[in-house]
């Protein structure tokens, strides 16, 4: 099995910062892309940012300049540094990985989600 586990969510005031972490484990042969999605109350899930194993990134316009993604390929981990947070950033954040298992299966894996609440 493959598991993705997120951590780092919580309550923060507008203008504050949080750092989310995600680690993938299990029968993983390789991971091409890892990323973060979020779903706000009453809204559809949206891509926040993704990063390839080579470091190429793709940010949503709403977070450019405020959020930074990074990954540690050796640890199968990805991080999201969120700065200058706004109330509209409030959402459940999900870690995602596009990977190949040890058995040759392509898998789009998801974490359980971590709640980020930006409020005064």
Structure classification: mainly beta
Rg calc: 14 Å
Instruction: Give the biggest beta sheet.
Output: 7 strands, mixed
> What proportion of the residues form beta strands (DSSP E)?
over 45%
Overall, the morphology is elongated
Residue share in helices? under 10%
Query: Kindly, what is the distance between the CA atoms of the first and last residues, rounded to a whole number of angstroms?
Result: 40 Å
Please work out how many helical segments DSSP would assign: 0
Low-confidence stretches: none
Structure explained in plain terms:
- The chain has 120 residues and is mainly beta.
- It is 0% helix and 61% strand.
- The chain contains no helices and eleven strands.
- The N and C termini lie far apart (40 Å).
- The mean pLDDT is 96.
Summarize the structure.
The protein has 120 residues and is an all-beta fold. It has strands at 2-7, 10-12, 18-26, 28-39, 46-52, 57-59, 67-72, 77-82, 91-101, 106-110, 114-118. Strands 2, 4, 5, 6, 9, 10 and 11 form a 7-stranded mixed β-sheet that branches.
Q: What attributes does this structure have?
A:
120 residues, mainly beta, 7-stranded mixed β-sheet
Task: Give the topology, please.
Blueprint: E1 2-7, E2 10-12, E3 18-26, E4 28-39, E5 46-52, E6 57-59, E7 67-72, E8 77-82, E9 91-101, E10 106-110, E11 114-118
Parallel strand pairs: 2-11
Antiparallel strand pairs: 1-3, 3-8, 4-5, 4-9, 5-6, 7-8, 9-10, 9-11
